[in-house]
Amino acid sequence: MKRAAYFPISEQALLVELGQEISEDLRIKIRLLTDQLDQGDFPWLTEYIPAFTNVTIIFDLLYFKESPGQSHERIQEEIEKIISSMEQESVKTPGSEPVKIPVCYDEDFGMDLDEVANHNGISKEEVIALHTEGVYPVYMIGFSPGFPYLGGMTEKIAAPRKEKPRPKIPAGSVGIAGTQTGVYPLETPGGWQIIGRTPLSLFDAAKQPPALLKAGDSVQFYRISKEEYNRLKEL
Q1: For the chain, which domains are there?
Q2: Alpha-carbon span 219 to 154, nearest angstrom
């Protein structure tokens, strides 16, 4: 594993850069690191924020009150130990089974399905078939609580963002932006091309964990009818 780079970004945060190019291998490394942080006993750890190529470690500065000037170095040493153990031990690849997410591509939900199809010179049915064919890695959660940035989408259905974002995108809306796809967990403004909607809740603050997905997971969409959507929505 390539040596990580470390960047203090505040007195209580250390950014751990595990690579520079987005890849499946790097996604797995990031997930392995965050799994180790979840499973280990790290009293200094407040939270972590995984992204496309890095993990930001937020720590309790009071834990290092005896030597506050060395807190970042101490955290780096701890992370180096975790990474070393990941290299030496046989660790099961996380998120190997994709999370299956039902999507209704009905015209009432797929507001931009026609636009995506026309942009690529294919039919709406071909867009749906290609979208449900892929298995998409979750690279990071961001923008809004629980919003998954999914990679690995075929360029055959890629489409640019809307020139004018919508002020409200309904919760559960499935969108495309460039070669990424994602799901809006909450009603928010947004500029992605909306092609369908899922009845599943991707974020519930009352649950633990609140988000259905986390960085390192993978997702596969499957098509459902509007009747199935309404039935699942009522559960």
Answers
A1: 5-88 (3.30.1360.40), 99-234 (2.40.100.10)
A2: 14
